[in-house]
Design a protein that fits this description.
The complex is a heterodimer of chains A (113) and B (109). Chain A has 113 residues and is an all-beta fold. Chain A contains no helices and eleven strands. In chain A, strands 2, 4, 5, 6, 9, 10 and 11 form a seven-stranded mixed beta sheet that branches. In chain A, strands 1-3-8-7 form a four-stranded antiparallel beta sheet, with no helix packed on it. By secondary structure, chain B is mainly β. Chain B has no helices and eleven strands. The radius of gyration of chain B is 13 Å and the shape is globular. Classes of the chains: A mainly beta (113), B mainly beta (109). At the A-B interface, β4, β5 and β10 of A face β5 and β10 of B.
């Protein structure tokens, strides 16, 4: 298996633009998680899905952030409009059961200028 | 809530040395994982180890759940072992990983 695949690896965008991050989980994994990592706050859970259904989005910082999982093999995290404080590394992770054996993607390094 | 503490915060070693990283957690957990974040930012799952001992090559981990700690052993360190090692436990209410602050390991050639 190719693991969790994220794209793009790097994204530089101007403030106010829409940004879409993509994730393909490991086939057969029922849970998908979006995390954000910054120097100040470390790794934060933004949202997670179980069987394509959003279960907990309490970590989504504000309404500018949205996430979808239209099918078992694809998820997106969208920021609209983007702001400089959104600059961070965004990780997608998946696993078979909610608390077991997380596999992380390579991350997307987002820079908003 | 659950607190996760790692020590030491920083560790600098020469290539070939052995090291022990520690993770203490404040409450009973059913799930503990060790991750390595390499200098390129990739997060690699090293061990899922709620209790007992596991080994994978030069790395091994032991969790003593009753005493609420876990240890990660790295033997014969290589420069590629450099990076940050994180310990994380799961909050079962929302499957959120509760992360320690990490141990930054630098292996000098």
């Amino acid at each position: 298996d190719a693991g969790v695949i994220q794209s793009p690896r790097h994204e530089v965008t101007e403030m106010g633009q829409e940004v879409t991050l993509r994730c393909k989980p490991i086939s057969g994994h029922d849970y998908l998680f979006w995390y954000r990592q910054t120097m100040m706050r470390g790794l934060e859970l933004l949202i997670y899905f179980n069987n394509n259904v959003p279960i907990d989005d309490s970590g989504m910082p504000e309404d500018r952030f949205s996430a979808k999982m239209p099918n078992a093999s694809f998820s997106t995290l969208k920021i609209q409009p983007s702001e400089p404080r959104d600059s961070a590394v965004y990780f997608c992770a998946s696993n078979l059961g909610g608390g077991y054996g997380y596999t992380f993607g390579s991350g997307t390094r987002l820079t908003v200028v | 809530g659950i607190q996760v503490e790692q020590s030491p915060p920083d560790l600098i070693l020469q290539e070939g040395a052995n090291s022990t990283l520690r993770c203490n957690f404040s409450d009973s957990v059913n799930n503990l994982q060790w991750f390595h974040q390499n200098p390129w930012g990739q997060l690699i799952n090293l061990f899922y180890i709620p209790s007992g001992t596991k080994q994978n090559g030069r790395l091994s981990a032991t969790t003593v759940a009753t005493e609420r700690y876990s240890l990660l052993y790295i033997s014969s360190s290589q420069t590629t072992d450099s990076g940050v090692y994180f310990c994380a436990v799961v909050r079962w209410s929302n499957y959120q990983l509760i992360w320690g602050a990490g141990t930054k390991l630098i292996i000098k050639p």
